[in-house]
Amino acid sequence: MDRTLHLFTQNLLRQDHVLSVLLVGKPHNPSPFLDGGSLLYLVIVNRSEPQWETRHHIVEEERIVEHQISQWQVESWAVHGVSERVAYWLSQAEILVDQHDYMKTVMERLLRVPAHLQKQRVYEEYSGLLRHYLEAKELQQQGYVLDAYQAVLHALHGWARLVVWEAGQQPEPAIWAQVKQIDSAVYKLYEELTASHEPLEKRIELLLLPLEFHVMSKMKDCTLLLTDVMQSRNRPWSVKELQQLPVLASSQINLHLLLEKMAKKAIVHEVPLHKDGGTVHEKGYQLSG
Predict the structure, then answer these.
(1) Of 3.30.70.670, 2.60.40.10, 3.60.110.10, 1.10.10.10, which CATH number belongs to 223-289?
(2) Rounded-to-integer distance, Cα 1 and Cα 21, Å
(3) Which of 110, 169, 214, 220 is the most exposed, fewest CB within 10 Å of its CB?
(4) For the domain 3-111, what is the CATH superfamily, name and number?
């Protein structure tokens, strides 16, 4: 560490209640993954309330980002899980100062994906994968080759993220390098789509086959978050009721589409809720079996 950065770190330590200082990045190398800075400091402070303050500095033309994070926030992350951005920083960070080995002690818990978060993310990523696969299939049938290609690419990216979450990890910015280490078969499909010399229409056709097999075979396992909720009562659920539950409230998920496909797989079954006039009735869903 050069003298300027050493002085900057020492100034951080003079602040009240500093427990730990972590550093991410390299000098003279600004990165969008570090909020535009070349160096990013995570400063853990001994405060008992939720707090996260961000400051941007320029020190002799070096762009530095400083995140001051309360110990309360760190402990909350250890229980509930961290965001992908924070997980990436922590996995790359060098611990410069660590009073009482606090961050060394808590780091393993911070980088571990809690079971409830894993179930939530698997459900969300699978739902997106299913939607992109169905869009790609329809676009291909209609002859929109470039749009079908884009949808397949989105589906593969969702598959990659699903693979990572199922492995109990957080997706990293270089996700395909990460997936290559976890599931080389999925990585190979990505290579076949993007680097094959086959005509584009043929590549799309060949990728739709394993995508279809995967979304159909993984549906029950990847929708446990939803089926666990539906199992909590004996009466059928309307889509509106499910959408209003905090655990399922994700605007990115097309719940109508997901439930329709789950009904075709006999994971749930459709139930008429009530009639509106003559033969019109609202459709509800109940777990099968």
Answers:
(1) 1.10.10.10
(2) 14
(3) 220
(4) Beta Polymerase, domain 2 (3.30.460.10)
- The better pLDDT of the pair 274, 275 is held by 274
Rounded Cα gap, residues 189 and 195, in angstroms: 10
In the structure, what pLDDT confidence band is assigned to residue 51 with cuts at 50, 70 and 90? confident
Give the strands of the sheet with 62-70, arranged side by side.
Answer: 52-59, 62-70, 39-45, 18-25, 94-98
- The per-residue pLDDT for 27 is 84
Q: Where are the domains of the chain?
A: 3-111, 114-222, 223-289
Q: Which among 178, 134, 112, 186 is positioned nearest to 156, based on CA atoms? A: 186
125 neighbors 157 (Cβ within 8 angstroms): no
Percent of the chain whose predicted confidence (pLDDT) is above 70: 97
Summarize pLDDT for 127-152 with one digit per residue, the tens. Answer: 999 999 999 999 999 999 999 999 99
pLDDT at position 60, please? 82
Distance CA 159, CA 179 (A): 10
Q: What is the CATH number of domain 114-222?
A: 1.20.120.330
Residue 40: beta bridge partners?
A: 24, 65
